Amino acid sequence: MPQKDPTPRLHEFDKGVAYISSAYAAHIHRARIDYRVKKLRLDKIDELEGWTHEYKKSERYEHGVHILRFNKTTITIFHNKDGTYTLQVVSTSLEECREAFEQVALSLEAFDYEEMPRYLELYIRYHERKERAVCEALEAFADVYAFKQSSVWKWHEGKRVAYVNRVQAQLRGYVIHAKTYRHKRWRSEEGARRHPKLEVVVYFKGKEVARGIDVARRALATLAKFANLRRRDILEAGEEGLLQVLCEPDPEMLRLLNARHGRSVVEKIARESLETRREQLLWLLKQGYSLKVAAKIMRISYRHARRIAAECKRRGELVRRGRKWIVKAKRLRLEEERKKLVPIIHIDELDKDARRMLLEQLSLEAVQDHTIIARKGEERLIIKCKLAPRKVYECQVCHRELTWIGESAPACPYCGAILDLKNLKRVVIDVV
Q1: Residue 57 gets which letter from DSSP?
Q2: Which of 83, 94, 118, 415 could form a disulfide with 398 if both were Cys (CB 3.0 to 4.6 A apart)?
Q3: Which residues make up the CATH 1.10.10.10 domain(s) of the chain?
Q4: Tens of pLDDT along 179-193?
């Protein structure tokens, strides 16, 4: 006997958009139930009122496939090798699947059957400005629960777009697929359908349906909460005739995601060349974190973070606007990095006079293989050569010259004295 749909319903909201404090109203996009039927009257399939019938031959299935369609419901009928039939019912909710099957089963005299719920899809459509935050939420979710992740990125109007970012996870005994994606032709769409969707699919696989739906609802709301989706970020469904369910975030799951994301941020800071606490705080504030959260990530007290922020404010690197800190520094340590930049000169590209004048103005620091490191006043230069330069040494003991090619310091063949950089008189560069 068909069971009552455990999915909680909501009344229709204005414009199909709902946002209640920390809860979200999600749309049921698709659901599927399979029915194993012992006997079926296929000769009455054309007598179904309101349904369109299509028969397709298939190399995989000996008896072909019958497809019935009515509005957003599709029923696919397979004739199994043991003489039974399988009806795959796909619709906009589990209850719609059951109602459609009951209608078809009554006409085709399919009274002896077994029901097998397969999956349910829930989604929230959000504004594309939050796409990066949603992808970060999926990354944190994958770090904690996932066993597989795949993504496809595309470029649109000069920016990188997450066409599909899918995470496959094992959550509380259920297989969960969480993803953000766009429609295939989103560039030509207008209105809400141009923006991405955050979707969670739960696969039941013989487990309790009501608990699986609750897991999916909590996972979807937790991801939305982690991405900080607010009322202005939630858009209408983009499709008509979809049911809504109320989803609330799971506090325990949210704490895990925040902890894992905080760890990944710390790891990212460790990879950044940020030497001081001031630079780390500026970098975190620039990523959109509050001062209190930044202090927790840096593992310092909030009082210490406020002192650092006050110093940055005096230096003109931070501005307080309301309750937010705005970073004014365009790039951290830009001036320091500019000072560390060393010009590279390819000597073979210069003419003879330019090479001579350049070498006369340099004071040599090191000669290594095809590279010469030297100084021109206070400026440091790196000179690249296609052929290894010839080093001309003058022995300070016997005052004789020796030409050498190689990195190791030679010894004077006349007196045996070791020659080093102090004995280097000049460098001869051969041009190809």
Answers
A1: -
A2: 415
A3: 272-334
A4: 999 888 777 788 888
| CATH number corresponding to 272-334 | 1.10.10.10
In DSSP notation, 245-314 reads EEE---HHHHHHHHHHHHHHHHHHHHHS---SHHHHHHHHHHTT--HHHHHHHHT--HHHHHHHHHHHHH
**8 Å CB contact between 281 and 298:** yes
- Alpha-carbon distance of 166 to 152, in angstroms, equals 9
Using CA atoms of 281, 283, 288, 294 in order, give the dihedral in degrees to the nearest 10.
-30
Task: Please say whether the beta carbons of 279 and 333 come within 8 A.
Answer: yes
Q: What is the pTM of this model?
A: 0.61
Which 3 state secondary structure label does DSSP give 73? strand
- The CATH number, out of the four listed (1.10.8, 3.30.160, 3.30.310, 1.10.10), of the domain defined by the range 122-253: 3.30.310
Give the DSSP letter string of 157-176: TTEEEEEEEEEEEEETTEEE
Residues in the chain: 432
Contact (Cβ atoms closer than 8 angstroms) between residue 215 and residue 202: yes
Q: Which residue has the tokens 């005739």?
A: 241
Cα gap 118→87, rounded to integer Å: 12
DSSP 411: B
Give all strands (DSSP E) within 7-145, no chain letters.
19-20, 23-37, 52-56, 65-70, 73-79, 85-91, 113-125
User: CA-to-CA distance for 62 and 65, rounded, in angstroms?
Assistant: 9
Q: Are 253 and 247 within 8 A, CB to CB?
A: no
Supply 25's token pair.
């109203």
pLDDT digit string, tens, across residues 42-67: 888 888 888 999 988 887 888 889 99
Question: CA torsion 224→229→232→234, rounded to 10°?
Answer: -20
CATH 3.30.310 residue ranges for the chain: 122-253
